Amino acid sequence: MKFPFDPRDKRKQDLDAEIQSHLQMAARDRESRGEPAAQAAASARRELGNAALIQDATHDQWRWGWLGALWQDLRFGARLLRKTPVITAIALLSLALGIGANTAIFSLLDSVMLRMLPVQNPEQLVALGMRTPKQGSLVNHSYTNPIWEQLRGHQNVFAGVMAWSARDFNLANGGEAQNVNGIYASGDYFNVLGVRPLLGRLMTSSDDTRSCGGVAVLGYGFWQQHYGGAQSAIGSQIQLDGHSFPIIGVTPPNFFGTDVGSRFDVAIPICAEAIIDGNNSYLDERAAWWIRVMAREKPGQSREQTDAGLAVLAPQIFAATLPPDWKPEMQRSYLKRTFVPTPAGTGLSWLRRDYERPLEMLMVIVALVLLIACANIASLFLARAAARQKEIAVRLSLGASRARLIRQVLTESVLLSATGALLGVLFAKWGGALLVRFVSTKQAEVFLDLSMDRRVLGFTVGIAILTGLLFGILPAFRATRVSLTSAIKGVEVQGDAEHSRFHSGRWIVSLQVALSLMLLVGTGLFVRSFRNLITLDPGFDRQNVLLVTTNVHNSNIPPTQYVALYDQILTRLKAIPGVNSASQDWFAVMSGYEWNDDIEVEGQKPPAGEEPLVWFNWITPDYFATLRTPLLAGRVFDGRDTADSPPVAIVSETMARRFFPNKNPIGQYFRNGVSQPLMSSQPVQIVGLVRDSKYGSLREDNLPFAYVPLAQMLQVPESGVFELRTGVTPAALIPAVRDAIGSLNKGASLKFTTLEQAVDDTLAQERLLATLSGFFGGLALLLTAIGLYGVMAYAVTQRTREIGIRMALGAQPRSIMNLVMRDVAALLAVGVGAGVIASIWVARLVQQLLFGLKSNDVETLALAAGSLVAIALLASYLPARRAMRVDPIKALRYE
Amino acid sequence: MTKRYQNRIELLQGTLDLLVLQTLRWGPQHGYGIAFAIRANSGDVLQVDTGSLYPALHRLERQKLIAAEWKTSDNNQRVRVYRLSAAGKKKLASERSRWAQISEAISGILNPSRESEA
Question: Which helix (H) or strand (E) holds A794?
Fold first, then answer.
């Protein structure tokens, strides 16, 4: 390929002619002064100096001279890379994986942690939290509607305040639920954010008044998917949980809501909660915490002014919204609450709490992978640079400057890393989407805007250049530092070669071994913690259980008849062929929902500093049989336990130990005085004791748990979960379950999952870490093997003559092998030693991400070091064997 | 002869441009001629390194201070001849006065006036 901009070749010929004419004139002058012709020409040339160097310096003065040189370097670099296709392919692949992985993880980190919301002046936004003096630095972001209404009505601290609450709405009228991500938004929500409508209009404060009729604003993606982007959507009605709302507008494509990690589909005003929830509305509930609040700061107002304003506002608002039935000490601390604004230009996200550490961890892991890849390519390039020594010596003696040659080698490595980065970006695009799927669960689908913004692009370009320099700089300097005479003659200056070239290759390999060991230790820790979690006995059997979440809100029957309906449903479900046993409870295990209350035990004061908090669930008699949780003492519920019989409960081991230490819990009594009107405040007698089981997550400590019978509940909620144990695949039951419940009540909405899936969903974070670190650990192992193989193979080639001499003098093949392997052993010893120390030091940082093992776990460390050493020995065995088979005659005749 | 050779001075960076422009004031000249003229006019004291001369010529050409064309010399040889452009003349004038200022200032420092010596 020719350089496309410049008629350079013509100009070069011109310059050459110009310098030739200079020489001729100089020679003629000398001749005229009496020098012999031959001598005159030689003196003129000597006086001129290095013609090539002069030409080079002159080229640089031409316009675009540097660009031409760059183009030349690039062409030459590409040609060299093509000449060694295996090395180039290995380098490109490891760079693409390394840079791609870094870009993917960084873009995830960027969209979860760093990216500003696409709204007006996002830096002015603050999330408003509340702090209770007793709780120290803990900031609570959940509000009740009465507090929000007071804040909205009385604040003058901010330019504007807005509130929202995420809530799934069901589009279907009965049958299997078709959920969309909804938000209840305050009337000013879009206004305060500064989001303009794409179509129609957005809500205003006049849409959000008590006893409103409700309106709906659609998100762009939902509008595209469900309405095909039709204008006619505006003005039509949308059914949410069986209530219809007129659609008034659509938001722009880049606005996804203020909860980073999900995308809102439809927004309705907060006042519409009364329509959706009817009599159970939270709007006047002073102890229902379901709203989040953000505010826009007044431009130019100082932090002190804001704090002062909030300090005046807080006591008034909390006095006006005091929950009346709270205990006096809780009321006192409620009145002392203060407001805490924190910057929220990047939105709010539950993902941050759960994934900040894992994402940082992954960033470290992929950075290590890239470093290992760099070390790998550097050692491959060093070997290649040695092979190019003769060429470089020739160029240097022909007048190329060393800086120019270094520039050429660096151009070549940056060309390589840039190509790698390009492939990496493609890999990252695919990998990023895969990562989001990893984090997503059936219960909490994650949506992230992974479009490449300036920050991600800058990051990728930055690391591409940096890696190019990192793996290029050592070979570049090493390659251009040659002894001209010996290199051209092709003679190795033995001691020198041994000492310099070979040694720098050495420490790179040791470094690589150390880095790989760190990575492998991380891999081992994450994989083993994950295995500890999935093999943990949770106290129930997760296999073959179908979970059916029902909601009978729109079933047109009064709440008093819910129990009867549930009873009928359960009977029908038990009759389905393939169902071995079936039960119902309120909040299933691993559902993310829980019910807990303080209890009182007759004649027992709760120990100081410990709250008598107990987790509750109502269940039907076959619950423990269905989940296969063993009954340890007493009995399970049965037909004796009715609404009219004395209240009974079954408790867990932890509850028995905590409240009835050294006593038989069976026959003991406790009271739940707080949960009225759900359950009776009469003393409850314990009739059974069951094994502890995990409830909210596999990582939690066992909870003190009390199960009460559904039949004795005073009030039954509109939603519940049926558990069906089967001998067949759980999903195969779905059609039969849908028909059975549909034939009893068409309005009941249904959601299906399996118990196994529900448990899996709680492990998304651990699975992500284990899978990715496993993948990258394997990659590091492979790269290290390749690097070691390359360096040892090169070393053997370099020492062929020496080995030949040794063999000619009578050395046995075995001792030659030992000679080579001794080298490898030394490299490994240094690398493993440094790696172990570094691993122990770094692993402390991941302790809180681990489960069931310590960060300095000896077994993991030994396993990582062992597998690394094994792979490394295998990789260097091949060159060592080749050394053993060196033919002394050939080796000596080599020159 | 040897003594004189030792007295030759390497040219200061930047002054070469000035000398080239000044030399071309007497008429168009080729590279070898310019080098020869500078050496001769300085009484063999200033030695022009060819490795600096040609880059300087091509740099001045790019800056449009001089223009070049191929001509055939007296003894029938193709040579590249440079001549001063209008912009080059202006540049020469300003560089000359700048040089005059500098050399006056430097000689002021090196030769303090008689009054202060007295």
Answer: helix A764-798
| B13 in contact with chain A, both atoms CB, cutoff 8 A | no
Over residues A754-777, the pLDDT tens digits come to: 999 999 888 888 888 898 889 888
B79 in reach of chain A (CB within 8 A): yes
Rounded CA-CA distance A720/A87 in Å is 61
> How many domains are there within chain B?
1
In whole angstroms, give the CA distance from residue A96 to residue A103: 10
Angle between helices A85-109 and A454-480 (to 10 degrees): 150
Nearest-by-CA chain A residue for B71: A18
Dist. CA A30–CA A242, nearest whole Å: 107
Contacts of B59 in chain A (CB under 8 A): 61
Cα–Cα distance, A509 to A828 (Å, whole number): 8
Question: Chain A: nearest CA to B117, how far in angstroms?
Answer: 46
ipTM for the predicted complex comes to 0.79
Terminal CA-CA length for chain A: 38
Q: At what angle do helices A501-534 and A813-843 cross, to 10 degrees?
A: 50
Q: Any chain A CB within 8 A of the CB of B10?
A: no
3-state SS of chain B: helix, strand, coil percent to 5? 60, 15, 25
The CATH number of the domain where B89 resides is what?
1.10.10.10
Choice between A173 and A619, residue whose per-residue pLDDT is larger: A619
Instruction: Give the angle A297-A299-A303 at the CA atoms, nearest 5°.
Output: 60
Domain that holds residue B58: 2-117
Q: 3-class SS at A151?
A: helix
* Residues from chain A contacting residue B58 (CB–CB below 8 Å): 15, 58, 61-62
What's the number of CA atoms in the CB half-sphere (13 Å) around residue A431?
24
Confidence bin at A66 (pLDDT 50/70/90) = low
CA-based nearest residue to A116, from A222, A256, A288, A269: A256
Q: Which residues of A touch B20 (CB under 8 A)?
A: none
Q: Which residue from B minimizes the CA distance to A48?
A: B50
Residue A254: count other Cβ atoms within 10 Å of its Cβ.
Answer: 12
Q: Which residues of A touch B77 (CB under 8 A)?
A: 21, 24-25
Q: Of the candidates A740, A284, A288, A745, which has an alpha carbon nearest to the alpha carbon of residue A558?
A: A745
